[in-house]
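User: Tripartite tricarboxylate transporter substrate binding protein. Structure?
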Amino acid sequence: MSVSRRALLAAPGIVSLGLAALSSPFGSAARAQGATAPGAAGWPNRPVRLIVPFTPAGTTDVAARILAERLQAHLGQPFTVENRAGAGGNVGADAVAKAEPDGYTVLMQAISSGAINYTLYGGRMPYRPEDLAEVGLVVRVPNVIFVTNALPVRSLRELVAYAKANPGKLNIGSSGAGTSLHVTGELLKMEAGIEMTHVPFRGAGPMLAEVIAGRVQVAVDNLPSAIGHLREGRLRALAVTTAARTPALPDCPTTAEEGLPGVEATAWFGIQAPARTPRPIVERLGAVIDAIVKEPATRARMADLGGMMPDLTPEGGTTPAAFTAFVRAETAKWGEVVRKSGATVE
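Assistant: Predicted structure:
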């Protein structure tokens, strides 16, 4: 992916990927825990497939499994996680877009396949935004920049100095071309004025394994999937990409603290369903997700992994309508990034 610094900086609000809260048009009754919309009374009466468009062990997968556990507790049926990776999330998302719209196949959507890829892949996209219906935003997460322990750098400033002294010798990994992790790496290279070779993987799991082994020296990942390796010393964290430090990794500075305030990025994950899924089912599932993301225990689990809850409504939750507005704004923003930068995927 080739991104010009001038092109990115020309788009207002593009370099900072922080997410703004949106107000909900729904009343409290629609958000009540377990609220059942007319016509959704018999749903679900069998297991529901929850498609994750990335490999196991990545943040999309981790967040989906936490959510699946709580959905089963609320709705009384298993939500079975099924990983379908490929094309920056497009393979799994396309499977859901073309699935039977009966409420028994839903998607754990990510920022890449849910916003970035619509413009990045252009005419090669296998589905359209209108092929999927928004149900609820589940979690937002910072990205983290880290290195293999064998690399002799202990801060982001030291990494920049090392890269400048060793041009073209470092690889930087991500979980896929077009992901927010890829773009964060591009922003890092542009802001710091350094060169590293991007190495995309089919998910966070294989990427993390290669960095731990030292075959890839630098990487960017969503904090939840990398945090265990960072806490246990298998990888060395250099900076998080949020404006403030995260309580989940309090000793890790921000990119701004390390002299690169333009490298700011926040990823997101939420539930979508096939577009023609009956609206009462979408509303019911959305109300249950809203109840789950407000649970103190769920918030604590996500926060321990570095996640931030959606907070699309004044009460700190989510609704289908609020998530729809959010996704439309993200798609427009990322479309502008891709067009102005000339970014492409091979």
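The first helix runs from residue 5 to 9. Strands lie at 48-52, 79-83, 105-110, 132-148, 171-174, 197-200, 218-222, 235-240, 266-274.
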